[in-house]
Prior knowledge:
InterPro entries: Carb_kinase_PfkB-like, Carboh/pur_kinase_PfkB_CS, PfkB_dom, Ribo/fructo_kinase, Ribokinase-like. The protein is an alpha/beta fold and 327 residues long.
Amino acid sequence: xxxxxxxxxxxxxxxxxxxxxxxxxxxxxxxxxxxxxxxxxxxxxxxxxxxxxxxxxxxxxxxxxxxxxxxxxxxxxxxxxxxxxxxxxxxxxxxxxxxxxxxxxxxxxxxxxxxxxxxxxxxxxxxxxxxxxxxxxxxxxxxxxxxxxxxxxxxxxxxxxxxxxxxxxxxxxxxxxxxxxxxxxxxxxxxxxxxxxxxxxxxxxxxxxxxxxxxxxxxxxxxxxxxxxxxxxxxxxxxxxxxxxxxxxxxxxxxxxxxxxxxxxxxxxxxxxxxxxxxxxxxxxxxxxxxxxxxxxxxxxxxxxxxxxxxxxxxxxxxxxxxxxxx
Length: 327
C-alpha cells in the first residue's frame, strides 16, 4: 500500500501516571513513581523510536504534570501540538497491583484539560493532519465528552478531505462509558476509518452482538470477517496469545506471536498498533506488518511502564538475537 503524506498524527489525552512498587500495596502507603501515559502518545513514541515522524495533538493543564508530559513526549522525538489550559488541570491515572503486576488502572480525568479539546482546536492543526500519511485516533477520546468527540470527528473529516489514511483503534474503556452508549459511536468511527484495530470483545461491541470466546485462528477469522463486513476498510483483530489477524477484502493473514513473560502488559496494544503503522508506512504487506507489530507489543510487555519498553530498531534486533551480553 502506498500512502500519501509523511508520518503519523495522533490525537488524544495523555495523563500523569502514578505506579506503585512491587510492595507494599498502594493502600498500605506505597511510595509512588510518577510517569506519563496515554494511548495515542504511546503510539506516537513507538513510531518515533522506530525512526518515523510522528505528531501528537492534545491539551494539557498549565501545571507541572502538563510540563512533564510535553517535555517527555518531545524528548522522544515526537512533534507536540498541545495547548496549555490556564484553568483545567492535567488528568491523572493510578495503577494498582500486587507482586509487581498491574491489576487495575483508575482514572482521575473528569474536568481535565484534555476533556476541553474541541473541533475548533483541531482546526488550528488542520495542516498537520492534511500533510500526514496517517491520522491515528482511538475510542478513548469520544468517551471524554462532546468536545473531544467532536474533535476526533473533525480530525477524521480533515483527513478524508486531504487523502490522509485514517487508522482507528477501538480501545473501549468501560470505566469511561457503558457499552450501550459506546457501541454506536465507536461503530460509526470504524466505518469512517480505513483501518480498524479491535480485540474480540471490541469487535462484538461494534457488531452489537454478545462476545464469545476466540479459541483459535478459525474463530478469529470468522469474527474478523463479520467485523470487516460491518465496518469496511481493513481490520486487524488482536487476539493476545494467539497473535493477530489482518483482513482486507477476501484475504486473511494470521500473525502468530511468541510467548513472553509479561512484566506489565499495559501499553502492549498501543505498541502493537505503533509497530503495525510503522510497517505500513514502509509499504510492507500485512504479514510483515503483523510481524513487526507483534514483536513491538511483546517487547513492551517485558518492561514496566506503558511506553518505556518500546524498542528502537537496534534494540529490536538485539531482542531477536542470541541474548549474549555485548561487552
